[in-house]
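The records we work with from here on pair a chain with its fold. These numbers are not coordinates but entries in a learned vocabulary of local backbone shapes. To see the layout at work, look at the sequence and tokens printed below:
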Amino acid sequence: MKENQEDIDYYVTLFEELFRASTKVVKRVFWTLLCLLVCFQICMHIPQLRIYLSFVYRTDGIPMVERNVNDW
């Protein structure tokens, strides 16, 4: 019975170490993604960079003025 308890304590210790290590990784990934998001949003406010970062901005085109359209 004592061996089982020692095994259980060992596995609990391993789980706690794994949990601490994975928590650090998740926190790092979260902060990295948050910083990248902020940097990306700042870059999207700069018109010269927006052309290279946004596919939608490149395909937006030139606004159409109604009086110049003869096909209507």
In short: The two ends are 88 Å apart (CA to CA).
